[in-house]
Design a protein that fits this description.
This protein has helices spanning 9-12, 21-35, 44-60, 63-72, 94-100, 105-112, 135-140, 281-286, 345-358, 364-372, 374-377, and strands at residues 127-133, 142-153, 168-170, 179-184, 187-192, 201-203, 215-226, 235-238, 254-260, 267-269, 272-280, 288-294, 297-303, 312-315, 331-338. The protein is an alpha+beta fold and 378 residues long. α2 packs antiparallel against α3. It is elongated and about 100 Å long. The relative contact order is 0.10.
Length: 378
Amino acid sequence: MAAIHRQDAYEILEVTRTAESAEIKTSYRKLAMKFHPDRNPGNHDAEERFKEISQAYDILIDADKRAAYDRYGWAAFQGAGGGASGGGFHDPFDLFREVFGSGGGRIFEHFFGGGREESASGRGSDLRYDLEITLEEAARGAEKEIEIQRLERCGDCKGSGGADGARPHTCPTCRGRGQVVAARGIFQFAQTCPHCRGAGETIDRPCKTCRGEGRAENTARIKLKIPAGIESGSRLRSTGYGEAGMRGAPYGDLYVVIHIREHKVFSRDGDDLFCEIPIPFARAALGGEISVPTLDGRASVKIPPGTQNGAIFKLRDKGMPHLRGSGHGRLLVRVAVEVPTKLTADQRKKLEEFAESCGEHNTPITKSFLERAKEFFS
């Protein structure tokens, strides 16, 4: 038996023998995603590699098993049906549920690129929908209608999966457990029963429309209310709007992930908005009022004389609404002093006279800099 193990568990997971648990988890997640059967359909080598990775992780993530392995190697796990975990089974998806949350279905599919994954309770798969909205919609709130393809309860059999008068029977293959345990060499792993497809029951006369599943593909239109102040990356959960479970099991949930389209004027930082406004050189020097855009229209900002390039003016309550609670964030206006690039002869003469009257080093910022850097000019 020991000869079957051709590679060290640490080498399988591509970690050192002193690796911490966090490093082992990270490496396992990367390798499991790479070799997962759903991402490598029909690839027997990838399937075998995935099983090796899962077994190595099962050993190295458990302190007692790891200590036994470090002392005796693979020999510590011989017997008990050949399984590395002493006859038990480590679900390789546990780590992914820990990292990504307990939702299955197409949220899970999003990470693996595979098929639907039913939850252990039999409820339908959760679904994910990515929705792009504008900054204005995020600021004011919006109502959206989305269209999704999902498995819904079969209308002909009302979700039972059977024709009129049909009766369910305990699946003879899995004996009602919904899973079967398969062994290949030293590896032992559980998989969905191929006979009842995880239901634990079979029907003598299945519904012709859904072929015994109790559900069928359909297009659903769902209305969503987008709250004002929502941020990009937020998830909206619609309970019961996922897919129907098999044979009358409850629906899963729908998760809508919000993406806010890049705005041509404003950028966002939390509840604050930011924009840059060009102002003429003369306005910066003389001061005055400028008009700035906001999500609600125009606003006026007073520019004091001698305003420098990059100065920021803060407008209270002109940013995004607070998602939780009342009020708004700020609008931060950064001024960009625009220096003329082309001058007429008359303009150039007047600017030269202005510069001469000011003196080359007679401005506060220049004086401060020269004082700090005088040793470099001596």
